[in-house]
Structures
1.
Amino acid sequence: MINVLKSYNELSSTVADIVETQIKEHPLSKLALPTGSTPLGMYDELVNRKLDWKSVITFNLDVYLMNINLPQSYQSYMRKNLFDRTNIYPDNSHFPFRPFSGFEDKIEGSKGIDLCILGIGTNGHIAFNEPGSSFKTRTRVVNLSEQTIKDNSRFFDSIEDVPTQAITMGLGTIMESKKIILIASGDHKLNILNVAMNGEVTKTVPASILQRHKDIEIYYCD
Ligand code: PGA
């Protein structure tokens, strides 16, 4: 079921409440974290709540293959919007890295992800698992779809500057999370959200696999 909220502020505070409860009840929580426009309000909320992040372990869902020191990298995004504004330990915040088996082992060695926060692309991707991705995929390098490059060009000076490749957690990796929260904001996301959550479970719409997760909550605002 899609929970429709009245405003972006409500979406952000509702999801921040879920993260806050998770961290307070389980200080050693393992979180999978998204980037992009949608979670910005949630990160602001979390920072303002001055939570104790010192035992929390985070795994980012994906990274562009690009210079990580540029402002558009997801490493820069996370530093700016969360890590530099909390007491999280740098050693506890992980981005997908090579060898990918090492990254997967780190997740599994930490006994898996407790809470995974996801956005959804207008083409139905989750993390950077683009249409056509197998439901069994693990962390790997992917080519970004034309739609994703176009959608994300708003963060770059020109579309030519958007990286064409990324490293993403796989759909198999994501589905092993104990709990998943999917967030989407804006009219342009409503159709794909409905298709993914109420339509056929198909590789053409990667987010549709989430219908098979037993602990998923979906939050939307227009
Ligand atoms: P957005 O990206 O939050 O910037 O819309 C979501 C996504 O592509 O997963």
2.
Amino acid sequence: MYDFDGNDVASTIYYGLFALQHRGQESCGIAVSDTMGPKGKVASYKDMGLLNEAFTPETLEKLKGDIGVGHVRYSTAGSSTRENAQPLVLNYVKGTLGLAHNGNLINAPELRRELEYTGAIFQTTIDSEVIAYHIARERLNSKTVEEAVGRAMDKIKGAYSLIVMSPRKLIGARDPFGFRPLCIGKRDNAYILASESCALDTIGASFVRDVEPGEIVIISPEKGLESDKSHCIKKEEHARCVFEYIYFARPDSYIDNVSVYNSRILAGKFLAMDSPVDADLVVGVPESGNCAAMGYSLQSGIPYGTAFVKNTYVGRTFIKPKQKTRESSVQVKLNAIREVVRDKRIIIIDDSIVRGTTSDRIVRMLREAGAKEVHMRVSSPPFLWPCYFGTDVPAKEQLIAHNRSIEEISGLIGTDSLGYLKIERLSQIVDGLEICTGCFTGRYPIEPPEEDIRGEFEK
Ligand code: AMP
């Protein structure tokens, strides 16, 4: 956020990040600078955990400045440690850069080696530092910071939505494929960049527009909002992550003018059309399965119900890095309401099955609560391939759909029947937008790297 009236931005950034907490729960941070003050003086605070665990009113109070950047982290490259928390703050001859990155680079290991051979010393193991380094280095030979961002974009490959804070400008950039979202908002005399529009609603800002795939936007008090489209590619080549609509994003967000809520309702409707089953009640696995369950109910006429109580004090279980932690988390997070499911034939909808841990527990919970039949419908196709572009997907061998038929999976998770969304439906749920379906089809918009980039830096 950049407030041209000179007001402090840290607390607004905090609430904006709070609305984006679902995107990452491992660590968080805010870095701010005073554009009227000494060039390059940045105050920042980062820590592990959720925002309300990491920040206190006192820590926020100390962050004085009218320009700032914040981040909540979900790791795809680099381990979950305090050093790897973002935003990254980098001091160099031209001042200070603050950087927040969402996505995953596919050529980070090469770029990192190249930089290391020329003397670079890295402080973190995340690919985002490679981006920061490139921008800082290019800045020495560029007239402006946006030019340096553009030159860095010529080198980095993969998925990135970036926010760069320079001493006097705020820059947003989205990779040419548009894998990850990024949008622009405005409140009074301040501009905001955020991953999802729900963050703008939360802080009372109005939605201006999405940053286009490949676009660099430059925010400064002299010129307001400027745009550089020299990195944009043809619309047909765009490859937005469809999993944002299926799972990641909040349903009250719009990404590239498509409502996340609508796409989930549609997925549920298509499931009801393509994979019908006779039952008494449709229920969702909270939260991400709820919209699709509603869609299924609307289309099939089978009543929609609430079968689970979710303990809202726990985060998304998947994000806990260890399998053992995840298993026990399902019970901590959800409990079935016996009164609702007893003696009923239930259709349970979830957004995805990855390892199958969640489904297995949930199906068991429903049976223990007295369900007569449990039919599972999944509002995405079977998860079969790795993601190189910012979604954390376990190794192939751990994916329950790997080398298994739908009947076999159904047997493993203990359902009476199982149905997935058809691949052909994916572009229909996002109003025909160009999407990446790599995790379901193995077809990627960019050739995936030969070396396994997952955890590369830890080896
Ligand atoms: P699993 O228990 O491994 O089958 O995980 C499936 C559950 O985790 C689903 O209910 C999703 O809501 C959620 N999920 C799926 N993919 C991801 C991901 N890449 N990151 C975080 N959560 C996910």
